[in-house]
Write the structure tokens for this entry.
Amino acid sequence: MPKTNAFFANNLIQWYLQNKRTLPWRATKDPYRIWLSEIILQQTRVAQGLPYYLKFIEAYPSVKHLADAPESDVLKLWQGLGYYSRARNLHATAKMVANDMNGIFPNNYKELIKLKGVGDYTASAIASICYDHSEAVVDGNVFRVLSRVFSVSTPINSTVGQKEFKKLAQQLIDQKQPGTYNQAIMEFGARYCVPQNPNCDACIFNPHCIAFQTKTVNQLPVKIKAKPIKKRYFNYLVVISKNEKTILQQRLGKGIWHKLYEFPLVETSEKVNAKKLKTLPQFQEYTQNLKFESITLYNDEPITHKLSHQHLITQFWIIETFKEQHDFIPISKITKYAVPVLIENFVSEFFANY
């Protein structure tokens, strides 16, 4: 076990300075760019998040530019990253900072955490990196490093565990260079103390890591078992008129994909065939005025789209119609709408030749 807090922090920072990746948000202390990077990197790997960060900075070089953008444009630029509430909160906070705070982000943890979509981790990251405040970050990477090095078996997704790890992280942070320390421990967890098969033999902490010494690395961190995955059965009605127009609808209810667009949806309790689908009241409501010519199943095997706590078993039904309604849009304009990646993948494949 590390002899002192300084020993742990010094070794971590030394490793980081020699091994850190060159990333654009590490070349600045601009709170707008740090905040943007941290929101993008929530639930997202750096390799996936980096292109989005660059696109956002190009489109919205300042918080004022982001605040002035229509929410639909922000959601469209976010498309493919998932967890779309992050994008909606991003836009809401940008408007708050730009309009109510004269474009200046709060300079302390207490005020930062009041911003929409900013929790303990993000507020700590901004406060430490931008303002050199000793606020320790705690995320999945930090949980993993601390639980192994110090052999902490309290579940990380329990209230007690989160308090315990936060307290330990706060004790270990380097008071003189908190921003560097926070980035170091996150980088170490992301690239070295990885979830599966870490290279413990070459680790800078292996003489002191209790989990390594007791051969319990693969048992830590401990997590309370998650709830069973819920299965949902989605049937999308892809209506196509003779004039190559279709229907998209915006999801306005609570739940997944709020404010994104999709084809008319009929959700069922199990997989259905065309005969069963046509008997359902929701299907009849959607199609009663269409006078459709034919209905065919596009994908013989359902597409299973996996979200964090649910699997969407999805079928796309192609409905050809002679009649158009006022809400039809040209197929050529679908790509202008922010849609879930499930819909985006279907559109890019099915409508490739339209």
